Amino acid sequence: MKKVLVLVNKSISLFYFCLTFSLLLPSCAFAQDSEQNFIIGELNHPRVNRFYKPLIQRAYRDIGIAVTFEKVGGERGLRLLNEGMTDADVIRYDVVSQPDNNIIIVPPALSHGASFLLCIRGAQCDKSVIQNPTKAIAVTTRFFFNMHISPEELNANIFEFDDFNHVINLLLNGRFDYAILPSDYSEKAIFEQSGIEYIPLVEHELVHVIHKKHAHLIDRLSASIANQLDLARSNN
Fold first, then answer.
1. Is the pTM of this model over 0.85?
2. Quick one: signal sequence residues (predicted)?
3. What is the pLDDT of residues 223-235, one digit of tens each?
4. How would you label 178-209 residue by residue, b for 16+ Cβ within 10 Å and e otherwise?
5. Omega of the bond leading into 108 within 30 degrees of 0 (cis)
6. What residue spans define the domains of the chain?
7. Pairing of strands 103-119, 178-183
8. Which of helix, strand or coil describes residue 207?
9. Residue 216: closest CA among 99, 87, 122, 91
10. Which residues pair with 199 in a beta bridge?
11. What is the Cα–Cα distance from 45 to 54, expressed in whole angstroms?
12. Contact 134/140 with Cβ under 8 angstroms?
């Protein structure tokens, strides 16, 4: 009977020790769990696939975090990140981080970009196009937010699509004469080869973003991203 009581007492003591320890270090336990199965949203954009996604993957690998990428659309991707269903997003405009949401920026900026008005060859191509009620313009989702305008402020007919490549194809196939798309200026040669004129409308910093539950990673991740950017510049 005494042996049974001793074993019970030891079990109870061990339970309370573990409980107390976990209460004292909740943030450490959470951080460890939250970095398992780390999911990063990625937009279907040629520059993201070719350059930014591998760079971000290397940055996480260098701080010991294995990541999984998930294809997301512009609007859906931000909703998933804000709700904590994904942990980060490869690259976004800096305006996505707002005081009333759960999205935070990891410095430094990955690049500088803009929302470009794209026009097929021979079409009128100036900023007045977006105020012309006879013009139809294909855009990606988040267009109005990125441009800091509301739909009623534009007179052109705006058609939103969730995929960058789809909008480019609509333009090249003659379905639309105009499009407005995000770019980090790296597609300028592609636009020119395709006979597309382009005008920057609104400029932004392009940044990596994470859910605020991972704020403890910012210092290490920031240093790792800066290192990857330096390596990329030295290799060019």
1. no
2. 1-31
3. 999 999 999 999 8
4. bbbbbbbeebeeebeeeebbbeeebebbbbbb
5. yes
6. 10-111+206-235, 114-204
7. antiparallel
8. strand
9. 87
10. 117
11. 13
12. no
